[in-house]
Structure formats: structure tokens, C-alpha cells
Amino acid sequence: MLVYEYENQEVNDVISKMNGPKNYLDIGMKVPLNIFLSHEIERMRNVLQRVKTDLKNVVNFTNGKISNINNEVKLQDFLSNVAGIVNSIYAGQVPRTWNSGMDIEFSWSRPS
């Protein structure tokens, strides 16, 4: 495992003990900044899961380990997805599948 995968309960336990800004008496999820932090952690968890799944698919494909796809349409979609990921990475771009369906915009989407 490359990145430690935080569980929801673990994140909630830590955030519930966090204070707010100076002179702010509330703690935990009563602090707006802590709510924002928990949302950002959840979004990053989703992104990391998608990236990890896609990269595992690329590695399995290059090692010839794609035996569980029995439908020709699913196989074509899988191959198209893997090819798109490899081509994007080779071109120094973020693969389209890492941005699609996330309902948020990432800084990596914009050229710097």
C-alpha cells in the first residue's frame, strides 16, 4: 500500500478533538473549518481510490492479468480506458477519467 487509507471513524475521531481558531470556543464538527477539512479528506480519498484502481488496471493489463472480463463490450471499454490513461500519462497530462464524474475541479486541470 502506497498511501495510508484513513477510515471514516478515524478521521471523525481526530476532527472531533480539533479546536477552532483563536477565541473560538467550539471544537470538532461545530467548527466550520473542521467541516471543510472533513469534506476535503473525503474528496481526496475518492480521487486516490480512482487513481489507484486505474493504475492497478494498467499494471494488470501490461502483465497480462485481465481474465475476469467476459463481455466483449466491457473488454473494449476497459482497453479504451487503459489506452487513454497510458497516453495521457505519456503526454504529461492528467487522464480524463481522473477528473470525470467527481463534481469538483482540481488544480491539475488548469495549465500552470
Describe this structure in words.
Helix content is 53%, strand content 0%. It is an all-alpha fold and 112 residues long. Helix 1 runs antiparallel to helix 2 and helix 2 crosses helix 3. The chain starts with 7 loop residues before the first helix and ends in a 22-residue tail after the last helix.
List keywords for this structure.
mainly alpha; single chain; about 55% helix; about 110 residues; elongated
Give the topology.
Blueprint: H1 8-16, H2 32-62, H3 72-90
Largest β-sheet summary: none
Q: What is the global morphology? A: elongated
* Main structural class: mainly alpha
Output mean pLDDT.
80
- Counted by DSSP, the helix tally is 3
Helix content: 40-55%
Order of helices and strands: HHH
The end-to-end distance, rounded to whole angstroms, is 30 Å
- How many domains in all? 1
**Segments where pLDDT lies below 50 for 5+ residues?**
none
Count the strands?
0
Percent of residues in β-strands = under 5%
Rg over CA atoms? 19 Å
